[in-house]
Structures are given as structure tokens and as C-alpha cells.
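::Amino acid chain::
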Amino acid sequence: AYTLLSRWILRDKLVDDATCLRLCTTWTSNLRYRIDKAAQALSHEQRDQAVLLRSFSALSLALLAARDHATQFLDEQMLAQLVDGITSYLRTEPDGRGYVKDLGWVHSTAHAADLVRQLAKNPRLTPPQQSALLNSILQRVQRVRTAFAAGEDDRLARALVELVHRPKFEPQQLRDWLTSIVNLVRPTQPEHAIAFGHNRRIVVQSLLTRLLLDDRQTETSRACVERIKQALEGKFHKPR
């Protein structure tokens, strides 16, 4: 289904703008589906269905964001709603699983990262929206209690690279972000603390790798590489 959507929306342009707008409204609304506290009363099967709807709505929205970047069809209000929707989703999605036996890919973190990556390419993104996307990745790393083991770190890193390459991005923004991520408070439960430490480290390492491999070497990206090296060397840790 996703492959068909990609062909129809991006490659062959078989879906008109009006339909894309309706899909954008529906899929953005889906990001909030059964994500509140009442979801705890749902059965295991219902929770699985809900997270799949949310996660694959995020992945499908990435197609619309890519289309808008190529040929604008979203107005400022719709773009803002999309940014608000994905930043809220990254903060609140409780499910951090990757691949699940007998269910398939959940991958909510990776799918959300794909949408952030496409939004970060959009020249109409405002500085506050840029900061909100950056902060939502930080909050996602803080929230997830399972180890990234299915490429989530790389997908998040790719999104971060696009933010770094935005025209008005400043290395200080990344330094502040790195300072925040290395000083996040560890969870109290040992199993969660191990996953948290792994995720925090691997996302920063993946960001370094992606920036070094990127063909768009600029003064800003080189400065950001130095900031990441400093973070990995422990220079941004604050005494407790």
C-alpha cells in the first residue's frame, strides 16, 4: 500500500492536490489516535492497531511533505498543523518498538523521523518550527524505553542533517541540543537506563557519521562536526 501511495503521490502524480490536502488532514489527525491515557484501557490488539495507524500515517505524511517541497500545495496553516502534529507525536507516542514478530514493522520513531526529514527540506519552515522539530527529536530520545535496534538512530540522524543544512541554522543550536541530550536524566529502572544510554549515544554517533558522509560540506556543517566530537568526548557534561 505504501509503495502504491509513493508512486501515485510522488512519481506519477495521479493524486490531485485537493485529495492530497484531504489525506493530509486525515493522516495528521491520525497521529493523535488513541494516544491519550484512555488507551491504557484498550486490549493488546487494539493498542497494536492504534500504533500502526499512527506510525504509518506519519510515514505517509512524509510523502505529502516531499510533494509539497517539490510542488507547493500546502498553505501556511496546513504546513504549521503538520509541524505541530509531528512534534506532538514524537513527544507523546508511547510505543518505541521496531519489528515485532507476528505483527510486522511498528517503527514509529523511524517513520516520524522520515517526516521530520522531509519537513526540514522545506524552505518555508520558520525558525521556531525548525527549533520545534529539533527539540522533538530530543524529547523522543528521552521518552523511548527500548533500545534502537532497527535503524531508528540513522533515520533520526538523517533528519537532523537536513536541519543542520538549513540556510539559517547556527552551530550554537546544535551545541545547545547536544548539551541537552548528553545531560538528560537517566530513567531509574536499570533496563530502561541501559536502552536510554544506548539510544542517546548511537543517535549522536549516527549524526556524526551522516554529516561526514554528506556531500554538502559547509562551514556550518564542519563546525557542527566539531561540536559533535566534543560531545562524544564528554566536554558538554554538566557536573551533578
The first helix runs from residue 2 to 11. Strands lie at 99-100, 104-105. The two ends are 50 Å apart (CA to CA). Residues 59 and 111 are 5 Å apart (CA to CA).
